[in-house]
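Annual report, structural modelling task.

Input specification for the zinc ion complex:
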Amino acid sequence: MDIKKFVDNYKQDMIDDLSKLISIESTMSDPIEGALFGKGPKDALLEGLKQCENLGFKTKNIDNYIGYAEIGEGEEVIGILAHLDVVPVGDGWKTDPYKLTIIDDVMYGRGVSDDKGAAVASMYALKIIKDLNIPLNKRVRLILGTNEENGSNCLKHYVEKEGHIDLGFTPDGSFPGVFGEKGIMHLDFHSKSTNIKDIYGGHTRNIVCDDCTIKIEKNTYSSKKLEDYFNNHNIEFSVNEDGDDVVINVKGIAAHSSRPSLGVNAITYLLFGLKSAGYQDPFVDYYCEKIGMDNDGKGYGLNISDDYGSLTANNGIIKMEDGVITGTLDIRFPVTYTLKQINEILEDNSDSENGYIGEMKGVEPLFYPVDSPLVSSLLKAYRKVTNDNETLPITMGGGTYAKGINNCIAFGCGFLGVDYHIHDKNEFLPIEELWLQTEIYVEAIKNLLEV
Ligand SMILES: [Zn+2]
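The model returned the following structure:
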């Protein structure tokens, strides 16, 4: 059976459905009646479930948090978990981020890669499984969440109401599968004292801050040295006088906090620049010592790694309230470490005379052996469709739904080595990859049915 031909039949339908989903601004906003995560995420869920109904699947909406579409019968549930919420678009797009735009066979729009495209690919994979009349001795469920980007409270609600799945994947990472996900630790650091009059930058904890502004007293640093520092590091900046003060703005480059080295942190360059220009401030000292330039947690004693990767740390947001500066730190720690170990290291190293850390919140890592039935049957599907027998499953720093439900790993939707600009401007997906994803997911479901 040539699954490609089935995919061909649905190409226009898939583009139509995806473009409806992209047009919904499904970023988290204030709760309203019947929509805990705001109107956008709820509207995206209703649209996604409607599309599933149009394809002939049974659907269930669980309190507008999350919903699912299902085919097949049986005790066991194969789950595919995609999410329909997105992160804010930010500035600098060359197309309208809420309009699916195809240029030279590449789709642009917020969510084409993370994760609305994968939701549509999975939806049509279910449809093709149905078309193929494959006997279904298990239920196959496409679960569509709306709060993945802000704590996955949608999935917690799902597990409370429906329980865990027996086997499955979330198309929200990389092919050919993610057998380990780093643990996550979130914390805030604070200034004990500072001369800074105001500072603000960033809007999301899990994105490298790409814009930071500070207000400090005039003549407290060498403006020549500051300019040289920014120019030497190719940093875009502006300096404006405001009475007795100056307001300095620095632009960086956003990237996902699981791979902070792909970005340029505006806060970091601004504060390191000021320090090198002779600006004296206890908070700037704390920042440069503890947060540092290398995103590796070294200042807190956290520069650890294992066979599968190293710890990363990202400062996403900074702000000042009532004279106290607070910054966020998003730490991704190696898959063989535990939260307890990270806590212990932090407790020993966080406090100094210039600053301190506050409350810590974390999630344990995830780890499945590469030869487990789950990882190996998904790898088989990838290999069958792509003929790529070289690329091996990976571990990653991103936290996906796989951490929130048993028997699940991330599988696709990205191909290894491509930066799809997720969580950044000009997020894209080559249209061919949408068809490939669909084909791979059909094979994956077939394999999981046989486990
Ligand atoms: Zn995602």
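The first strand starts at residue 58 and ends at 62.
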